[in-house]
Write a sequence for this structure.
């Protein structure tokens, strides 16, 4: 679970609620059911109308991606690819087929299988890059849903405000009711801004970060797989793949390699 995302969302709402509670006399004015129906209900209705139902059915899974920690560790992937490069140089590419059963990442598994099957390097790169391209398109779907919701929520807030202003104009003969009606009219704009800026926009941003990280990891895998196929020296493979890491993570790579070697020795 990505506690940073959860803490950020909860803290954002908590700050707003706390600010409202600090003025007890007006706290009750911020709870208005008709405004909630217009803003939240309208946003949901517009989203349903804009996207296919089969795509919206994936929304819970998409949200779980935004709220969980990154599942992939590039240092572990590099250490694994270096180990495979060492094995390929000692025993040949066909020996890598034994490692496929223990590989959990389907993308890496598919790439190694293509290499073991003797597929042309250009074709291997083409197949894997096409898969990365479609992966990015699938990721764009989740981002587009939340970006769309972030764009329409303030609009429905403004619609609610206009409705409230129209209702307010019917009470012009009562000056005391005008101020109260104006406050209610503006609540929908507040709801729309909160929904857009403390829910939808942060989730879309986090999905974008998740997508970039995963695409970068897949590109790392592609370079490692092609290096395996070319029979490059494992040290050269490691140095090439380390270029995908930050300087701090490069220094920690040796520790990950030692841990993996210990696990392999214990397993054997």
């Amino acid at each position: 679970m990505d506690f940073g995302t959860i803490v950020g969302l909860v803290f954002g709402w908590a700050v707003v609620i706390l600010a409202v509670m600090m003025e007890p006399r007006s706290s009750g004015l911020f709870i208005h059911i008709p405004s909630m129906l217009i803003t939240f209900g309208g946003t949901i209705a517009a989203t349903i109308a804009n996207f296919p139902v089969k795509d919206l059915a994936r929304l819970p899974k998409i949200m779980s991606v935004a709220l969980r920690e990154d599942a992939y560790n590039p240092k572990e992937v590099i250490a694994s690819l270096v180990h495979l490069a060492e094995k390929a140089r000692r025993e040949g590419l066909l020996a890598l087929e034994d490692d496929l059963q223990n590989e959990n990442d389907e993308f890496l598994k598919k790439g190694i299988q293509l290499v073991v099957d003797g597929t042309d390097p250009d074709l291997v790169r083409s197949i894997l890059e096409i898969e990365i391209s479609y992966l990015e398109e699938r990721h764009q779907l989740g981002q587009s849903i939340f970006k769309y919701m972030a764009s329409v929520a303030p609009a429905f807030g403004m619609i609610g405000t206009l409705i409230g202003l129209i209702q307010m104009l019917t009470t012009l003969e009562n000056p005391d009711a005008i101020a109260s009606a104006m406050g209610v009219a503006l609540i929908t704009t507040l709801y729309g801004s909160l929904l857009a800026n403390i829910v939808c926009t942060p989730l879309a941003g986090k999905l974008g970060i998740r997508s970039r990280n995963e695409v970068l990891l897949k590109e790392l895998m592609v370079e490692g797989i092609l290096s395996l196929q070319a029979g490059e020296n494992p040290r050269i493979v490691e140095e090439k793949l380390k270029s995908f890491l930050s300087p701090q993570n490069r220094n920690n790579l040796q520790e990950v390699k030692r841990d993996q070697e210990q696990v392999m020795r214990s397993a054997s």
Observations:
- Residues 33-268 form one domain.
- The chain has a mean pLDDT of 84.
- The chain is about 80% helix and 0% strand.
- The CA atoms of residues 112 and 248 lie 28 Å apart.
